[in-house]
Write a structure and sequence with these properties.
The chain is mainly alpha-helical. The chain contains 3 helices and no strands.
Length: 72
C-alpha cells in the first residue's frame, strides 16, 4: 500500500504537466472555433469552398492518420 502511494506522489508533477498541456490545447481549440465562426462567410468566398451546413456534418468528418507497422 505504501509503495503505491509513493509512486503516485512521484508521478504528481507529470500529471500536473499533462493537465496544463490539455488545458492550453482546449483553450486554443475554443479560440479557433470562435475565430472560425466569425469568418464563416470569408472562408467560403475566398477559397471557393463551403463549410458543412450543420454541426452533424462537421462531426461526421474523419481525419486519416497514417499508421506505420512495427517490424521486428
Amino acid at each position: 500500500m505504501k509503495s503505491i502511494i509513493e509512486k503516485i506522489k512521484n508521478l504528481i508533477p507529470y500529471f500536473i504537466l499533462i493537465t496544463i498541456y490539455f488545458l492550453f490545447i482546449n483553450l486554443e481549440a475554443s479560440n479557433n472555433m470562435k475565430k472560425n465562426d466569425s469568418n464563416k462567410n470569408d472562408f467560403g468566398n475566398k477559397k471557393g469552398q463551403t463549410l458543412p451546413k450543420t454541426t452533424t456534418e462537421y462531426d461526421n468528418q474523419r481525419i486519416e492518420i497514417p499508421v506505420i507497422p512495427f517490424d521486428k
